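Entry 14. Two folds queued back to back today. First construct below, sequence then structure tokens.
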Amino acid sequence: MTTYADDELQNDWEFKIVRAYRAVFAKPEAFKKLLSEEERAGWILLEKLDDNRVRFKRRRSGQANDAQLISEGIDPYRTQYGTSQMVIVLVIAIIGIVFVFGFMAFIIFLNLRSPGY
């Protein structure tokens, strides 16, 4: 839905949006860290869409440094920031399973200790 100026489209720019599953960009230190990391790959901040999304642009010539960045463990085309949604779901599922088994063990323990009728 964002419109681009003719200059941006005709002068070999590329664009990306970095997303976070939580509103981490509301925290100034997290936002500054993102900007610093993206700047190393040549990305320029266009706009902070909200506390979950930030839009960047860079000249295609920035791709010349991508191989070096990748060897340093930096993904110049990342679009996700922070903990993925799958990790959050997995943690919640594990906590739920532990709770259910704990509750079942508690019920079994109570049944073993109570005298029969």
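Second construct, same run, same settings:
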Amino acid sequence: MKQKVNIPACNDCVSDMSGLFRHLNNEQLTRLNFEKSCQFYHRGDHVFHENNKATGCYCVNSGILKLYKTGIEGKEQIILFAKRGDIIGYRSVIGAEPFCTTARVHEDATLCFIPSEVLLQLIQESHAFSLAMLKLACKELGEANSFITDIAQKTVKERLAEIILYLRTSFGTDNEGFIKIVLTREEMANIVGTATESVIRQLSEFKSDGLIELKGRKIKVLQIKPLERYSNLA
């Protein structure tokens, strides 16, 4: 359930939000602060649904969101996990299209909503801001192209190794060295694009080879280089 929260100041997030809002001047940031609204979402809450009209975009102030597409028989294909500093839904706003994914809260989150007309006005006013948006969109498109290639050409072992390293880089590790995002085996399978049983089997193999440590759903990377070789990142 959504809950209103104290609105975080955009100035506090300028350095985190993909570098986007640092291109706005003080007047534009003040206007953005006034026009946006912020909500607290609990784990499991939906922020928006695939094919719904995009009336604005969202900036992640805290928490983690899962973005996914729904396939055959309702199976989820996870596209990415958004964390503090990420902006989601903006491409649908710019393209005047429905949301192309569903966003659900993975860990309790505070999100700031920017109405479409506000975002589009800022893009028109600031060349630097619009260029930063374009670069971000191009970066995400490149990542999507790489994802499609991986699904088509890499084995489950290679894709799983790459995903483990990606999660470790993106979310960091706790004091014990475990990755700071906890996923079910089904969610891991929905990222890799395979059956849950295949992920369970491959994680057990990585564990037996001494590459990772498992503690319930938590994963700790013990040997980075072999995983990099498996994922073709080395």
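Quick look at the second one. The mean pLDDT is 89. Residues 1 and 217 are 26 Å apart (CA to CA).
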